[in-house]
Amino acid sequence: MTITGHHLIAGLEVAANGPTFRGMNPATGAALEPAFADASEANADAALRAADASFDGLRLAPPEQRAALLETIAEEIMALGDALLERAHAETALPMARCTGERGRAVGQCKLFASLIRDHSWAEARIDHAIPERQPLPKPDVRRVMLPIGPVVVFGASNFPFAISVAGTDTLCALAAGCPVVVKAHPAHPGTCEMIGRAIVAALVKTGLPPGSFSLLQGSGTAIGIALVKHPLTQAVAFTGSLRGGRALMDVAAARPNPIPFYGEMGSVNPVFVLPGALKERAAKMAEGYIGSVTMGVGQFCTNPAVVIGLDSPELNSFVSTAAEHAAKVSPQSMLHSGICKAYDSGTAAWKDISGLNLAGESAAPTQPEASQAACRIFTTTLDVLEENEELKREVFGPCSIIAAGQSKEAVLRYASALEGQLTAAIHGTEQDLEEYAPLIRILERKVGRIIFNGFGTGIEVCPSMHHGGPYPAASHSFFTSIGTASIYRFVRPVCYQGFPDAALPEALQAKNTRQSWRLIDGQLTQDDA
Ligand code: NAP
Predict the structure, then answer these.
(1) pLDDT tens readout for residues 330-356
(2) Residue 229 Cα: closest atom of ligand 1
(3) Nearest CA among 141, 177, 178 for reference residue 502
(4) 229 lines ligand 1 (CB under 6 A)
(5) What's the CA-to-centroid distance between 121 and ligand 1, angstroms?
(6) In whole angstroms, what is the distance from residue 108 CA to residue 111 CA?
(7) Cα(223) to centroid of ligand 1, in Å?
């Protein structure tokens, strides 16, 4: 497939004529062909008008047709073969094995959402029959179901070129729900974005769904993203990226004359609590697992364990020294782009100036700055220093982490109570630890989207019960997940019908349950007819 650098608007190639930029190979510093250009406000307007015009065609299509779209997207992505993997590898420096694995996750998500929407169970239909003879007033027939909200704007992150990008969860679950999508391509992998965008365009053609259901706009810089969020036809925004970018766009969404839902998935320090029994039992093994998690994907995961908390003890010291030994063995690797690498180096360099925060270990091999390489860096400190320094409360994106020693269980609980919202927290302990630290679990339930026992937050299972999100600033809305099938609920809203004749109701609410969907009828969950 030839990458043209064009925007893809409602199935048409639109030549780009704004300021140009190129994909860069972070490992070599080489600029990649072709040039891409920033989309204009007129491009954004064209994409959203087409999306709005396609909405009825997409949402009213039979579920089988939208399921076929998702499955065809998977086939079209796979048909791009090694060329897609090679482009993603060149643009991101992610190893080919990681690109292959992540493409598998993206394709798996297509199939997961296709199977989700074949019946209406996901749409949570509720039916309460009329009781005309009820006294003192008759009860009306009331029915409620989730319906798609309209055009969705998607911003993917640089660190997941497949699973959280053009055909990532946000796009797939929006299309599954029946919402047209306009994607703002990530400028760190524009060629990968275009290739996957073309796969989606081809799948729309093959399945006979309206071309305006999908558009892809390229852009480097904030203007096009802001124009998309402000556009009056945009009904919701899904964003994955930095807290800075997410907060800026969240404020734009809220400042519109008609504010719209903004689902921002942002960063987090993902605290790991290593409890005394576990430290006594397996400090070395935990330290090895910890460094593996910190350095996975060169630390470029939003669930990276950036802070470890334990009681000041010989066992915690042993955890630190084993972690430092493993850190020394980690080879520096290229990060996703030079900007992220510079931010990592300046972020960890600033830490070295904090009194009471000490570098305990780092990659022994030298880094090659021209290849945007990052060294693993592990720091030690006390809980007091961690609590006193605001800059230690936010992620530095990359393979670094801080191990903090507390003087007492109370100090550990106090630290947990003061945490900002987090995507994940992990507790490493024995069953006895869990009994002794039961209050810690109660505190984390108020702070965190996912609590992990004896594991780490990296490596997210894509499944119906996954919750990937958390209280602000981890995410903009703590109720919703951006991963797993429940992510579809970001792009639907309940609509209630009162007193309607059966034939005028959406299929999911009609008396005959043709798809054997699960529905709540008069308070009972059932697959029966209503
Ligand atoms: P980013 O710099 O925030 O960029 C994400 C996207 O938003 C890009 O398309 C970017 O476009 C756009 N953008 C950023 N700021 C903007 C603004 N003020 N106005 C308009 N558009 C804006 O994030 P990233 O570096 O790609 O990704 C790394 C970050 O994502 C890390 O913080 C990581 O923790 C987080 N992340 C979170 C999750 C999660 O699920 N919670 C998953 C993966 C990554 P331009 O670059 O063109 O401005």
Answers:
(1) 999 999 999 999 999 999 999 989 999
(2) 20
(3) 141
(4) no
(5) 33
(6) 5
(7) 14
Residue nearest to atom 38 of ligand 1 (CA): 302
Mention every residue, 6+ apart, whose C-beta is less than 8 A from residue 255.
none
Domain boundaries, the chain: 8-21+34-130+140-266+481-490, 272-453
- Confirm or reject: Cβ of 158 under 6 Å from ligand 1: yes
Residue 388 confidence class, pLDDT cut points 50, 70, 90: very high
Neighbour count for residue 463 (Cβ, 10 Å): 11
Residue 189 has pLDDT above 90, yes or no: yes
Residue owning the nearest CA to atom 30 of ligand 1: 241
Are 527 and 518 within 8 A, CB to CB? yes
**pLDDT for the residue numbered 291:** 98
Identify whether 302 is a catalytic site residue. Answer: yes
Unique residue bearing structure tokens 């592990």: 378
Query: Could you tell me if residue 393 is left (phi over 0), alpha (psi between -120 and 50 degrees) or otherwise beta?
Result: alpha
Distance (Å) from CA 159 to ligand 1 centroid: 9
The reply to whether ligand 1 has any atom less than 6 angstroms from the CB of 450 is no
Which CATH superfamily is 272-453 part of?
Answer: Aldehyde Dehydrogenase; Chain A, domain 2 (3.40.309.10)
Which long-range contacts link 137-143 to residues 24+ away (Cβ below 8 Å)? 140/498, 140/499, 141/498, 141/499, 141/500, 142/496, 142/497, 142/498, 143/496, 143/497, 143/498, 143/500, 143/505, 143/509
* CA 241 to centroid of ligand 1, rounded, Å: 3
**Is residue 413 within 6 Å of ligand 1 at its C-beta?**
no
Taking phi over 0 as left and psi of -120 to 50 as alpha, with beta for the rest, 150 belongs to left
The answer to whether domain 8-21+34-130+140-266+481-490 has CATH 3.40.605.10 is yes
The CB of 44 under 6 Å from ligand 1? The reply is: no
| Known catalytic membership, residue 445 | no
Selecting among 71, 76, 91, 265, the annotated active-site residue is: 265
